[in-house]
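Quick one: structure for this chain?
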Amino acid sequence: MKNIPEVKLGIVAVSRDCFPIALSTTRKEAVVKAYGEGLYSCPITVENEKDAMAALENVKEAGCNALVVFLGNFGPETPETLLAKSFDGPVMYVAAAEGDGDLINGRGDAYCGVLNCSYNLGMRHLKAYIPDYPVGTADEVAAMIREFVPVARAIIGVKNLKIITFGPRPQDFFACNAPIRGLYELGVEIEENSELDLLVAYKAHKDDPRIPAVCEDMAKEMGEGKYYPDLCARMAQFELTLLDWAEEHKGARKYVAFADKCWPAFPSQFGFEPCYVNSRLASRGIPVACEVDVYGALSEYIGACVTGDAVTLLDINNSVPKSIYEEEIAGKFDYKLTDTFMGFHCGNTPSCKMCADRAVKYQLIQHRVLEPEGSEPDISRGTLEGDIAASDVTFYRLQCDSEGQLRAYIAQGEVLPVRTRSFGGIGLFAIPEMGRFYRHVLIEKRYPHHGAVAFAHCGKTMFDIFRYLGIADIAYNQPKYLPYPTENPFIR
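Got it. Here's what it folds into:
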């Protein structure tokens, strides 16, 4: 995935000048050894402000874009927080636990030092990543740093992201309303374009010499009988249009995501549905959110940074029929009927996340509307349909609401190995206490019907990212014993 950052991590030890500096330097080197390859060790141990500036210059020259500040002893509050103030990237603070043996000259008091460090960070209004329990042995600190890497990758990605849109949201899709104030608060750039701009660029790619190679790749991906050969050239032309637009328009930013209008005019003007192409870009770390869902695109991109894998955007779509639940789920999986739902979209989920019978098909709903009754599908073709494969998932979203406030939700669960018996790109999802979460988070807080899906359990990392980004309201699927503020206490 070339559209997500590579984290180049550095570690700087800090030392309070009334403590032995060797406590920090030797403990830091033990962390570096425990971590292994990929952690640059700054040779400067920071005791004062001049040391801090020299250390920053050193890690910058080394190409570091994320920084670990290691309190090998109590640490100097001002210099260690100036590191976060002046470093252009995410910063983590972690501290050394006391070793066995000498608690006279060998005691570092870093446990205490983290408190003053955090206090100083707060007074300077600085953001930093501090682990849940930020004090540990060399092996424990190395494990904490590994957990920091996907957080850092997402923070770097968001700060260098441009979201490119085409067209306004479809009529009556107020759920895709996107106040851009929240994007600017996060450091995300946005470029808004007309559907006509996209159509002009698409037509300019007619007979592009790269089209046959893309068609060949599509055929290889899908397999014989799983695509429309006569449609490939049109879709390949569109894929090249988006890729070229991303390269030519990302400007000063390094990474790109799209939020495109895909109906109702798109099929009639382009001659196909864009869903399969969107799925192919998502598999490369370039999300293309449906229905101009800007915050859906942003959410997907964060998931791609966290997992380094393909993600998708789905409607929280329909309940599971009781007959399917009783036949396929009850007694086999530990879920209530209200824990389950079907996540659906027309066909934007990458093929690598779908069952083997997936295929490029046509959009049933658009076919009803756009093509003569009883006719063979033509312009409504181009969706990637089939059941989503069984997998652990994290269902989540970062959203700016109508009041301009950023908020987020995270829920972990799974896609069950149960046939949906429906159309589109669809899966049967199970999330513990989904029914309550649906009512007291999704409905109560007026979230849109789109949710991003990462195909792994990464809720802890997502939570840390949203906290680092300054999101105050982070909801999750609370267990039954923990009522929501709006939950009626008299319901059993």
